[in-house]
Amino acid sequence: MSGERSFALVLLEMTLLVLFGPLVTGTIQKLKARLQSRQGAGILQPYRDLAKLFRKSTVQADTASGLFRAIPVLVLAATVAAGALVPVVRAGTPAVPIGDALMLLGLLALARFLTAVGALDAGGAFGGMGASREMTIAPLVEPVLMMVVFSTALVAGTTELGALAAHRGTSWIFAWHAADFLGVTAMLVLLPAETGRIPVDNPDTHLELTMLHEGMLLEHSGPGLGCMLLASHTRQIVTLGFVSALFFPIAVIDAGAGGFVLGLAAFAVKILVLAIYLALVESSYAKLRLFRVPQYLAIGFVCALTALALRIL
Amino acid sequence: MIPPQPGQQTLLAGVFLIAACYGAGALSSLLARWSGRLALTVGHLAALAGAVTGLGVSLDVLLGDPGSTLTVPLPNFFPFARLSLAVDGLSAYFLFVTSLVAVAATIYGPAYLQAHSPHARPARQAAQVLALNVFLGCMAFVCCAGDAMTFLLCWEGMTLASYVLVVSDDRDGENARAGLLYMVMAHGGTALLLVAFLALTERAGAFDFAALRAAAAGLDGSTRTTLFFLALVGFATKAGVVPLHVWLPRAHPAAPSHVSALMSGVMLKIPIYGMLRFGFDLLAPVAGPLPSSWGWTVLVAGTISAVLGVLYALQQHDLKRLLAFHSVENIGIILIGVGLAMLLWRTGGAGEMLATLALTAALLHTLNHAAFKGLLFLGAGSVLCRTHVRNIEELGGLARRMPWTAGLFLLGAVAISALPPLNGFVSEWLTFQALLGGASRFHGPGGLAIVFSAAMLALTGGLAAACFVKAFGVTFLGRPRTSHAEHATEAPASMIVGMAWLGLACVALGVAPGYAMRLLDAPTAGLLHAPGASAVVTAHGPLVLSVGLTAAGQSATSISMTMLAALLVALAMIAWILRRGSRGTAPQTAPTWTCGMIPTSRFDYTATAFAKPLRLVFAALYRPRREVIRETAATPYVLRRIRYAGEIVDLSETQIYHRVEQGISRLSRTIRVRSTGHIYGYIAFVLGTLFVALLLFGVRRG
């Protein structure tokens, strides 16, 4: 099988995702601040936070095992590896196969699994609570994401994201099937859950009533916390890239350096659209009670199941 | 007589050697007259030799000429049935799975039994050694049986030996009840198998599989399906498919841990072998696809088992019981693949290839589950023998005390949660691809059912991850909750070696699964008479797994576990440099943040608390019951003591078994009124029954 995306391009795209991950967070925070009539921190603030954390020294819980120090490393590695599976500047199968959409979800699940294990390591109630809640929401989100992937994969005959994007090509809304609209709806419902945002999670607080993901990071500090934060920035942009690869148009042909810049600009626009969506949702809704979240996710499930039914029947 | 085939002599020698090793092991129980410890060591060493020979023999067959069946005649014990062994690809593959786990279990066993029950009486040790060797020998030969008689004898030997092992460990009432339930369920299943086999042997006039196959060729559709369902229910009972699983979570934890590893990792796979042998070989029609009811039943049963197995596992706090429920889940995942293969086989077009893909996924998951479930049970055994506690709420903090065990258990936990880059992900990925391919072939409700099954499989994976975060975190992390856990020490070296062997298998099967496809060539090609696994899955070289969902060659999906693992390692190295930070100083330690209070082990999240959100989300299935008793002092604000009790129910137990039990009790009460206690009355009953039977059958024959 001849791939259309060279290995160097895949690695370059992965690096770009890691580098621009914090920028997306910064943008969303800035947008939220403006929507709330605040000035807000600059969009580069996440980079400053990371730089500060990597300069600090580490304080570790005295009950933590040897595993605790390895957790941030493994979580970051798994999340960044998921970034290698997302087509950024153009579609097509990679020349060196690494993984497909299921692998991407698997790698994100691996990162989540390890984060939850790390949260239990220190032996505090906050970490346990965060881990318990995160591992409650995750099994409800994953099947629906899988079903959305299946609803597009059934047409394209592949689950490889580059090939799925190539199948979608540059055609957009006008060429969409009803199942596509439902798939997008399901994805938009799930997006706040997968990126850890309101109405499912609140990324801004450590309060025990609201926290899922942040609760698990409580005992990490210094560079370790930096790794964990970088991993969550990366996870966010990877998820957004995943959605855009499934549903947004993307260039298929290779057009040299000009095409690369154009593809990158197009990707930035797509991510920006999704970031604005997330900021709007976060500013206009309240956090749901934990036991309401399954009902909220059920909307996504119904949309995804209907999308699949429309594809098959 | 069959002309001697090439390889027959080697196989004969190998089979003889396996039998000799297990036989010697069984005989070594006599050494217990002098020293129980000596019997344990010698018996396990003999079993290890048998397992290693089994690995050699099975690899020889699997990597040799595919598609050939080697037959070994056995001495005649019965005038009416000629006993023989027939080893083809499928047999050899299951022999391989058996031997792989047996190697680990026999290395692990002696030290475990010594550490777990140092004051055991020699008689008990003799019984354990005898039963273990008989168990392993029967499991090895039941897969290689060439006729119904050998199959049933070995099947029964496997059940009896495992029963002895189940009740051998701690002699308390609960183990005895678990053993009894196991016995009853297993024999109920065997009775159905016996009927299925005897119906075939009666037609064939012989017991060997070749004759049965020939006799089955002339069956009409409904008889064929009836026989298949008899065999299916018989096998499903032994495999622990919901709702026939109730014995499994009781019996598996009761056995010594290395035997639990064998029971969960291997014994549950023997019925899978039986289903494949019956469905695709003995009872398969000469041409055309299998009846669709077979595949749909297996697929639906597998899906239900997978979801319910993991849901019940989530709420268990007994480490070994939790693992036993995960076996129900994984058998379900295997059956999803088997059912799909049954649906797609001989449907033409891409169906051939997809059937091979589904069967490959099922067989690979069989091997993978053997590796990681074996590893997890051995890990649980190490915890058990060092703490003598099975309830994970009483553990905690073991990762600092037993680092090797903790690391290997975590490896198994990642593998069973179907997370990359380990082996569980590979077989689930193949299952997903097969389901997706199947869905695109079945339009209408069938396709939707298959996709729904895929969604349930995804749910299963997520819940398994949640369950193992709980199991690993509460057992190994945080602070020790009792003095049992506080004074635990690392397990003996031989036990760690046994676990590491299976851990290595998990990593190897995860990072380079393409090489394992060569082992699957002979069973898939032999069973389906189609291109083998490596032609379908590793068409682009052994490092890349690629499948096409539609007609061959069109837009395939490729992944490379090896590349992914390399990428992960490289990224982890970069991240490690980041993690060290610019200062590079050793981390300071400080107490865990508990809002200013002095941290104690009571701040640790418990398993009950961890699983609570999911208990509430799935409350309709669990029907949870909780009881909180507060004892207060003079004012209600000062609690003197609080007691919490909670439990969940197994729906199949309350809805099916309890009702059946009530029915039987009611019936027996009715009968008791009629039974007078006089011997004449009973003789009259017997004579009357005989008379009626003679009348009925005599009339028919006349």
Treating each run of at least 4 consecutive H or I residues as one helix, how many helices of chain A? 11
Number of extended strands of chain B: 7
Q: Please report the total strand number of chain A as a whole number.
A: 1
Sequence stretches where pLDDT stays below 50 over 5 or more residues of chain B: none
As laid out across the biggest beta sheet of chain B, the strand order is 1-2
The proportion of residues in beta strands of chain B is 5-15%
Q: Structural class, from helix and strand content of chain A?
A: mainly alpha
Q: Biggest sheet of chain B, in brief?
A: 2 strands, antiparallel
Low-pLDDT ranges of chain A? none
Give the tally of structural domains of chain A: 1
CA-atom Rg of chain B in angstroms? 27 Å
Largest sheet of chain A: none
The global form of chain B is globular
The total count of helices of chain B amounts to: 27
Biggest chain-to-chain interface with counts: A-B, 91 and 98 residues
The secondary structure category of chain B is mainly alpha
Report on this model:
- By secondary structure, chain A is an all-alpha fold.
- In chain A, 68% of the residues lie in helices and 1% in strands.
- In chain A, helix 4 packs antiparallel against helix 5, helix 6 runs parallel beside helix 9 and helix 9 (222-247) crosses helix 10 (256-284).
- Chain A is globular, with a radius of gyration of 19 Å.
- The mean pLDDT of chain A is 90.
- With 702 residues, chain B is mainly alpha-helical.
- Chain B has a domain at 288-540.
- Helix content of chain B is 70%, strand content 5%.
- In chain B, helix 6 crosses helix 9 (248-254) and helix 14 runs antiparallel to helix 16.
- The two termini of chain B are 40 Å apart.
- The interface between A and B is large, with 91 and 98 residues.
- Strand 1 (59-61) of chain A pairs parallel with strand 5 of chain B, so a sheet runs across the interface.
